[in-house]
Specification:
100 residues, mainly alpha
């Protein structure tokens, strides 16, 4: 979907529920205080810091780097790969193409 950075924040925060929505309502005025506009990058950074601490992201990154198929089917392995790839910032479509 093509939308602005501000629209991404509106769409994304619309999906928040309960405690996460309460958190966003309380943090939004603080974030808007400086510039008045909260971009997707700012929302994502704040959300991840609150609900997905850096140490947990680091563990997921290591899990991605050490992923082996083992007893998993190819389908299960592919799903796990996709799930964990988002935690490894150096893995992109471009690096995937390069490694072929």
């Amino acid at each position: 979907m093509q939308c602005s950075e501000v629209q991404k924040v509106h769409f994304g925060t619309h999906m928040l529920a309960e405690e996460a929505d309460d958190w966003w309502v309380s943090v939004l005025p603080i974030l808007e205080n400086g510039s008045g506009v909260v971009t997707w990058a700012v929302f994502r950074r704040e959300f991840l810091n609150r609900y997905f601490p850096e140490d947990v992201r680091g563990k997921k990154e290591i899990e991605f780097l050490e992923l082996k198929q083992g007893d998993m089917s190819v389908t299960e392995y592919a799903a796990k790969f996709v799930e964990l790839a988002k935690f490894y910032p150096l893995y992109t479509a471009e690096t995937a193409e390069f490694s072929k």
